Amino acid sequence: MTRDELHGAAMALPGTELDVKWGDDHCYCVGGRMYAATDGAYTGLSFKASDIAFEALTSTGRAQPAKYLARARWVTLKDLAAQDAAEVADWLRTAHALVAAKLTRAQRRALGLDA
After folding, report:
1. Which of 12, 39, 49, 99 has the greatest count of CB atoms below 10 A from its CB?
2. Rounded distance, CA 45 to CA 102, Å?
């Protein structure tokens, strides 16, 4: 997956905002809450995963538990360029949905996430 593919997939999700934190880390957020983050060079990617995806990705060695966020079921892909774009886009959709589900009803409505 390329930098442009990642950025496009993330920004296509409703209510997504890009926030640069901790120097040059690009963080994709919904409702002010992070669901994915990458370094400024887009070499790696960390994202919120479901319990099943966390176990599958980390037990097979495809991803590592994310530093500082593993307890919240975040994983890190070290080589973004080697990843399939469609698969990563699907993980981003899931990460977005997991984080958006924790927002208040009013926040989700304001972001156009609830009808």
Report:
1. 49
2. 22
Q: Where are the domains of the chain?
A: 3-109
Q: How many residues does the structure list for the chain?
A: 115
d(CA 86, CA 80): 12
Q: How far is Cα of residue 3 from the mean position of the Cα atoms in its chain?
A: 14
Architecture of the domain made up of 3-109:
Alpha-Beta Complex (3.90)
Whole-model pTM?
0.91
Q: Residue 10: which pLDDT band, with cuts at 50, 70 and 90? A: very high
CA angle 89, 43, 113 (to 5 degrees): 30
**Alpha helix positions (H), 1-115:** 3-11, 51-59, 85-100, 105-110
